[in-house]
Design brief:
Blueprint lengths: L6 H9 L26 E5 L4 E5 L2 H11 L4 E9 L30 E8 L7 E7 L8 H17 L2 E5 L6 H11 L8 H5 L1 H14 L4 H12 L5 H11 L3 E2 L18 E2 L14
Parallel strand pairs: 5-6
Antiparallel strand pairs: 1-2, 3-4, 4-5, 7-8
Length: 281
């Protein structure tokens, strides 16, 4: 719950530009410092939007990772406010009108969608998806169902696809693996990797496809060949997954003692040159 909800709070949020903008300029309506919650909150950088995202639960974080890894997603706006909700005629059942105002302060509620996602693909015009992320047990509460019904009506009137996401729709192993890889999306802090990146990339891709050794052995070979610090082979591998140069079964827990073939590893095209590659060492 937000710590203090009154007219002053609403005016301050609007003045700060909360809930406005797109891409890197968007500011979420709710930020982690605004919330008093038992759930774990997270701030994490998004490469799709090039800004920090405010996620209010682990479940939101897991869903965010799935969105961040989806090539058809072009914008992710979390904690998106329905600022014009009270201007729209969406009430059919007058009993629901009781849910529109704070019971103590009588200040209008500003409903938020966990995510407003912009998607494009197959040459189509971009379209929006509103998603509410909830633990399934919350859906057993009458008050929650009533709030969700109001939001469903709102987005239906807007012509925006609306859906509810629970833990049952999220593969946590997949999400965690994506988050693990995305941590190495940017390797600018590793000059030993960026200096010879094209050669490093080509050699590790050869190793992953042409040898029958474990991930650990692949990383050791590439580190020895380029005299890299221990652990940089793994950083490079994660980076190539994040950048889609390496594709593999991410729905299973990754054990580095296993072989790439155990995870159906596939790589983008590699270049054969006249150097002695790591695969040939």
């Amino acid at each position: 719950m937000i710590r203090e909800w009154n007219e002053t709070t609403i005016k301050r949020f609007l003045k700060e530009g909360r809930g406005q903008g797109t891409g890197k300029d968007y500011k979420p309506w709710l930020q982690i410092n605004d919330i008093s919650s038992r759930s774990r909150t997270t701030r994490t950088f998004g490469h799709t939007t090039q800004r920090v995202h405010h996620l209010l639960s682990d479940l939101q974080l897991y869903y965010f990772y799935l969105l961040e890894f989806d090539e058809n997603v072009t914008d992710i706006r979390e904690q998106f406010p329905l600022l014009d909700f009270h201007e729209m005629d969406i009430l059919i059942d007058s009993n629901l009108s009781m849910k529109l105002f704070d019971s103590k302060t009588k200040v209008p509620h500003i409903f938020t969608a966990s995510f407003l996602v912009t998607r494009e693909g197959n040459g189509e015009e971009p379209h929006f998806q509103a998603r509410i992320v909830k633990i399934s047990s919350e859906l057993e509460k009458k008050s929650t169902i009533e709030r969700l019904e109001l939001q469903r009506r709102y987005f239906k009137k807007k012509g925006i696809d609306f859906g509810i996401v629970t833990e049952n729709e999220i593969n946590k192993v997949l999400s965690k693996n994506i988050g693990w890889a995305l941590a190495a999306y940017d390797i600018q802090d590793y000059p030993d990797l960026t200096l010879n990146f094209s050669y490093l990339k080509n050699d590790i891709l050869h190793l992953l496809m042409e040898t029958n050794i474990s991930f650990q052995k692949v990383f050791e070979k590439i580190e020895n060949l380029y005299q890299l610090s221990e652990g940089l082979g793994l950083v490079l591998f994660k980076h190539l997954i994040a950048r889609k140069d390496v594709q593999m079964d991410l729905t299973r827990k990754i054990y580095l003692t296993k072989k790439p073939s155990d995870y159906a590893v596939q790589v983008r095209e590699v270049i054969n040159d006249d150097r002695n590659t790591a695969a040939g060492c």
